[in-house]
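REQUEST ID: PR-0412
SUBMITTED BY: lab tech R.K.
PRIORITY: routine
TASK: structure prediction, single protein chain
INPUT:
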Amino acid sequence: MNHLESLDLSQNILTFADISYNQLEGPLPNIKAFAPFEAFINNKGLCGSNVTHLRPCNASRKKASRFPVLIIILLLVSAILFLSTFIIGIYFLVHKLRKKTTKSTLEAADVKDLFAIWGHDGELLYEHIIQGTDNFSSKQCIGTGGYGTVYKAELPNGRVVSVKKLHYSSDQDGGDMADLKAFKSEIHALT
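STATUS: complete
OUTPUT:
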């Protein structure tokens, strides 16, 4: 027989078995038949606890070797998730700061542009308003209210503005104060 593929030795009491040069692997049974080392030499990966020249079979060793690999994989996945979350958080923070900076810059530019007229000399500005309203002529009048008349004025730089000329109240019972409060309320409502 050159090649034996299957052998059933069940229900026998073996005292000696020679399985050398067969490229077998796995654990040897704990019986006296496999006690001599010469009976199993030249096989791939035999192991057993009853034979002195074989490495011991340890089923928990394979599990133990998987455990560090599992820990390393879990640590790597956790680190990647943490770094991803951190990078995404920084991206949104920078984006929000840029948006806020851009918005505040635009608001500052609008305010600066809105009040740029107030940086001029008061007398010169007054003269420009008088000229722009044609000395507060009725043809430049936009509307009249309880506290004053609103005029359209075109300034020398080409900008068109509205100017409210307050009516003077001759009421001695705090009329000036009431006019001032009403005017401030109106300005607050418009801005």
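NOTES: The beta strands are 25-27, 45-47, 141-144, 148-154, 160-166.
REVIEWED BY: pending
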